[in-house]
Amino acid sequence: MRVAKRTQNVSAALILYLFSFAALLAHPEEKKANAQTKADAGQAWVGARIIDGTGRTAIENATLFIRNGRIVAVGTKVKLPRGVRKIDASGKTIIPGLINAHGHVNDPSQLGIYLRDGITTVQSLGGAKEFEIREQIAKSSPDGFPHFYVAGLIQDSTAIPGAVAVTSPEQARQSVDELIRNKPDFVKVRVDDFRGARNKMPPDVYQAAINEAHKNGFRTAAHIVYLDDAKGVLRAGVDYIAHSVRDRDVDQEFIDLMKKRDVSYCPTLTREVAVFTYSETPSFFSDPFFLKEADPAEIAKLEDPKKQEAVRNDASAQWYKDHLSIAMANLKKVSDAGVNIAMGTDSGGGPGRFQGYFEHLELEYEVKAGLTPMQALVTATSAAARTLNISKDAGTLEKGKWADFVVLTANPLDDIRNTRKIDSVWIGGVQVPQNTLAATASLAR
Known about the structure:
The chain is built from 17 helices and 17 strands. By secondary structure, it is an alpha/beta fold. It is globular and about 65 Å long. Helix 14 (357-368) packs across helix 15. The two termini are 43 Å apart. Mean pLDDT is 90; it is low at 1-38 and 436-445.
């Protein structure tokens, strides 16, 4: 019976194929039209100011030509083929999609917030649900989410949410072996006593974790606070310092250790801001760009007088407030020394660390620390892409790269806060719709 049924199916398929072929021979112009439809002529933004993410001078009155999700050409003398859809971008500025090299994602809906705010790539640097979210994204439309990279469970001295406790070298090796079965983009260790509140991971343990990751071909990142710990993980071979050194000024030894192996440095200045700023209602709570995505329930909690009083009386919060200036000075110092700086925020890593908005606020704080607006933009584009090892596809507006970009109505080189003046966001050449949140929320159900 099965053989007979298969024969009938093959015969039917052959008849259908011959009928279709005859129809195409009879209507060659229809065949040509279909071929033209499949061959996307592309889109071109004409007359824009283009900041390409390399750090080079902005290109005035330029054209950005994209096709099939990739950049075809950028410049002032771009030749456009027939059929290209031209978009007048006069008076607008185009920048690469922003890259957050240190955030945290615990729910797919959070990715929609990042994307609508112009962050087209996110490194979620530690969490319990990251691999699951990555799988969900892989099964969905690729233009509804930022590019997503993960670390999985953090290797820590205490099993707090998003982390696993490792207290001996052998335990560290076993934990890393289990983690890398899921192929994380980084293996992260946390070396922090939380201002004396708990034990800190000792050097022999983080050395074992870093060695085990490297032995299997995986890169490593470190959460640190103190200069001595930063030097310790650098000597152990870590690939990425994922927070500022905050206790004291960095020295030449630290800079030499960073540059010896081309280790990237992520300042996360807004992480500190989130620790102490809610002692009162922050000024950005009235920023329309912030309010369009912020959760009103979270705002209400942070405006609660009891919450604000608790922050004012928190010794740890006060310590981070007092040391923010040190973190900012260290950012300027390592940047001037030629260390690769990757923009990151720790957004999503705790209450009041607002995803999407904090990436723009981070750029503002980088400029306050002494970076130029162009240098700040580089930290969030090509330098962050270099940190994530995705420079061949992302980080700059150059031929062959992903067509991920943000169209702005004002020039961020005049005022870095102009990155918030978004006209439209594009990922893979597709405009990000305002209902992305609804689409991503459906994945979580």
